[in-house]
Amino acid sequence: MANGTPIFAIEDLTVRFATPEGEVSAVNGMSLSLTAGESLAIVGESGAGKTQAFLAVMGLLASNGRATGRAMLDGADLLAMPPHELDKYRGKDIAMVFQDPMTALNPALRISRQLTEPLEVHQGYTHADAEKRALAMLKTLDIPDAEKRFSQYPHQLSGGMRQRVMIAMALLCQPKLLIADEPTTALDVTIQAQILELFADMKARFDTALVMITHDLGIVAGLADRVVVMYAGRIVEDAPVDALFEDPQHPYTRALLGSTPRFDAETSELHAIVGQPPNLQRLPPGCAFHPRCPLAIAECTAAVPPLTPVAGQERRMVACIRAGEAA
Amino acid sequence: MSLLPDNRGAVADAYDASLDDDVSGRSLTQDALRRFRRNRAAMGAVFMLVALVIAAAIGPSLLPFNYEDLDWSAFRQPPSLSTGHYFGTDQNGRDILARTLIGTRISLIVALVATAVSVVIGVCYGAVAGYLGGRIDAAMMRFVDIMYALPYILFVILLMVIFGRNIVLLFVGIGAVEWLTMARIVRGQTLSLREREFIEAARASGLKPTQIIVRHIIPNLIGPVVIFATLTVPEVVITESFLSYLGFGVQEPLTSLGTLIAEGTDVISVLPWMLWFPASFLVAMLLSLSFIGDGLRDAFDPKDY
Questions:
Q1: CB contact under 8 A, B197 and A117
Q2: Pairing of strands A226-231, A65-73
Q3: Do B200 and A98 touch (CB under 8 A)?
Q4: B19, pLDDT greater than 50
Q5: Bridge-partner residues for A210, per DSSP?
Q6: What would the DSSP string read from start to end of A82-150?
Q7: Which residues sit opposite A143 in a β-bridge?
Q8: What is the pTM of this model?
Q9: Residues of chain A contacting B219 with CB distance shorter than 8 Å
Q10: Where are the alpha helices (DSSP H) in chain B?
Q11: pLDDT for A2
């Protein structure tokens, strides 16, 4: 599933915010690519820049934010487009599922109206046809009593059901790329599992490339083909999912895996990563992770380590001068 | 252990069945109306207003006297059942009941038309300013500030002087003044709405700004707009009364509540009924409108329940 030419690529993306205290770099020189039907997980702590990178791609940055670089979707650069041009891609070729289904649906409109909107706007369906398609999509997503739910308002639906509606809305135009920003964070654990299953199922059925932004490594293992680990606005490791779990190269990835609770492990001890994520306004010199890194040496503070391919492993990159060394 | 699942099943089924009764779409508006109907003061005000509207609409045609006809046999008559002038007559022998009903009709029409004008202008202007934000918003709101700073009476009087006294102009003039507050309220609401995630979701699905304003912002404004509109109506009635009192309102022999009250105050010591009847109609109308506005505000504010 993860071969072929890339349909989506981010090249050297940088996102900066102008704040009264000075400029903040949320994302620094981020590059990645996706092939059709591939699913990619973006992992990192809060503030690592995962969400901002993709808000920039969607043209949804706050008004004080500025993005440079390129985001190529099918040969068109999304970042270079004026907003009215971008509207032809948003919701059609590229769609987004937001974190909190409680607030991402318009409380004043019926589910039916919100689902049919993108179809009428982008594909020129008549209202009746759009309703037929939307209802069929709700049924595909296993929403019980779809006809009844269809005519209800968001506050009459449970959180899991609302997230299904959000996913239905995103899938209706059959986008080439679906971005899910922590789609299960606001849901309870049993519903999380259902939603993840749904994503896996939909990805297979619609051949949509999926970007899953998350801080939950459990989601990553089950759903992603490839994982990108971010720290302080930079990609520190980019690896196929199995390889990442088996043999994490970057010390931060290792620390992240070590701090995940595991029910099959013998000890019940949880390992936290020492220290705090860095202040984005005053990043430490060199590798941003070195103040918290057990492997840090003097050279780490000299320069930002570039993302380099790992010897002997395909499609695998890491940004660390001591990559792979034991602690 | 064997009984428990069966039991639970039955209970759960019954519960599910009870849920099925009333689950088809009930919107925030429908919820609010349900709460409104439980508010006795507001419902009383609705009946009062409906009675006034019916009286103003069909009352004049049921009366034996026309509002502009003189009754040569009854000048300056106090209210009396025997003469048929239940509210008395004025110095020219015109029936006060007929004139009060016609005045109520004119005041209600002015109130509705001017409020509609102010709602349409205010909502469009405020939603556009609030949604676009930035410099456009600043420029648009400074224009509102300037309009606020102009004495509105002067503005309406200028309109009257330039275009002549005309009842349509009165509607437009008052509406053109009243929209300012509506625009401010709508802009404030829009500023908070546009930061909500569903607006971001709408942008992410490729809607143009005009589509977002029309399809997502304005439906969410219905609550505050309806409330403020009902509170605008009494304000418009008072403005119209004031302008009529100054002589800029409707022209004789047509009349409005404000004009009648103005005429009545001149003769309060000798013909008090010329003041009391139109004044009590005005008070009844304003009170019921205010109660309705209050009731709507309570009904649309979920925090109160």
A1: no
A2: unpaired
A3: yes
A4: no
A5: A39, A178
A6: -HHHHTTTBTTTEEEE-S-TTTSS-TTS-HHHHHHHHHHHHH---HHHHHHHHHHHHHHTT-TTHHHHH
A7: none
A8: 0.74
A9: 106, 108-109
A10: 3-20, 28-37, 40-62, 96-132, 134-149, 152-163, 167-193, 197-204, 209-212, 218-246, 257-266, 273-300
A11: 44
